[in-house]
UniProtKB/TrEMBL annotation:
Pfam families: TatD_DNase (PF01026). This is TatD family hydrolase. Gene3D superfamilies: Metal-dependent hydrolases. CDD domains: TatD_DNAse. It comes from Sulfuriferula multivorans. A divalent metal cation 2 binds at residues 153, 176.
Amino acid sequence: MTATHKTASPVAPFLHATPSDTAAAYFIDTHCHLDAAEFNAERDAEYARAVAAGVAIQIIPAVSRDSFATVAAACERYPGCLPAWGLHPMLLDVHHPEHLAELRAQIEKKRPIAVGEIGLDLFVSHLDYATQEYFYVEQLKLAQEYDLPVLLHCRKANDKILKHLRKIKVRGGIAHAFNGSPQQANEFIKLGFKLGFGGAFTWPRANNLRRLAVDLPLEAIVLETDSPDIPPVWIGHGRNAPGELPRIAQVLAELRQMELADIRDATTRNALAVLGLTHD
Ligand SMILES: [Zn+2]
């Protein structure tokens, strides 16, 4: 197959219903596992709380073949929740090479916002690197073929992630839960990526992340919760939720000495642009 597969933006009708064409007066949680079992008892309530807090769009990345169904169900039930399809690098126990064909079929069945969550994890030592790399590379090729951005999990693996991105050109994406050097951040930016910031930088001792959050160009930053994971400092070790996104944005606003509304509008515009959701 040589042609790319472009279709109209799946979110366009929703965006046209938003109040203003000029200001993006809502937040986007660019990485939220609302389909996770942790939300089974309170999914409706957490979705409603997020919407009430101004989080109008949530990107819900799949993590395995089996999660295609739970992500699809969440995205059908909740307006503004948009799916990404992918096989997560930490779940090697459940992936099989045939799942790549199922991923392709899923992309054909329902065009996602991105291919994700994919990537490499060198923090968890028992994960076989060659197997991770195989799934990561094959999924990059799918993203390239379908002209989709990618949602990257890149824990302790930024240079290896970047090496493959230079070889297999995709239309950009998001380095989710970014943590790395300013040089690595710049390499992602040069390749058309935004850097995802969430609960981790709200912890006072997260010096590297807090410095990045202040020093990086605002055009490079998108917000995320990674719910139910990566809780912000005010939740401690509890369950994170998409309704926390505005408060995470507030921390960024304080660190950068900006107004919350300006952080909201800029990060929303960045997310819309990198995910190909802009109005025209
Ligand atoms: Zn995730």
